[in-house]
């Protein structure tokens, strides 16, 4: 009877303990999980691996449900636009003009020019041309997502031959430079527009 009772007690207690092998496997998996470089308190997103400029920054985990090639295409496009936009925004406010402006536009800043151009109708032309460029660009993006082999952001535009004849490592270095400058430009353009609106003054908007 005593032996039977002891066997029952040990049997019921073992039901509340995890097998040693499974516990060890879970512990090993937990300890070996790779952490993000940018956010060390979060796991590194798997889908970012292999892309130039990957530091594991995807806190909202967009790469889990959006194709990574599409995300990289969008990042490059916005970065390139903001690099040009920051330069254009600041140079106009510093007085640079590429052609004489009508008297009605004299004294306008990059902020106040928007409403004036909307009234004039010039913004409608910009919408048309940009819309056409987006439609043409979407063809290349759709083909890329279907497996054409095209790399994100690659439109074959290299008039200065900056990557012609370069090794893969050198090409990746150039891509990383563009990516970093684009990311910085997105932050810089947001900052310069905000500062211009808050101060209402010319560059440097203080």
From TrEMBL:
GO molecular function annotation: chlorophyll binding
Chain residues that bind chlorophyll b: 80, 145
Keywords noted in UniProt: Chlorophyll, Chloroplast, Chromophore, Light-harvesting polypeptide, Photosynthesis, Plastid, Signal
Subcellular location, record wording: Plastid, Chloroplast
Transmembrane segments: none
Signal peptide interval: 1-15
Main location: plastid
Gene3D superfamilies, A to Z: Chlorophyll a/b binding protein domain
InterPro entries in the cross-refs: Chloro_AB-bd_pln, Chloroa_b-bind
Family assignment from sequence similarity: Belongs to the fucoxanthin chlorophyll protein family.
This protein's name: Plastid light harvesting protein
Amino acids binding chlorophyll a: 63, 75, 78, 117, 178, 181, 183, 195
A cellular component term, taken from the record's GO annotations: membrane
Top-level taxonomy: Eukaryota, Sar, Stramenopiles, Ochrophyta, Bacillariophyta
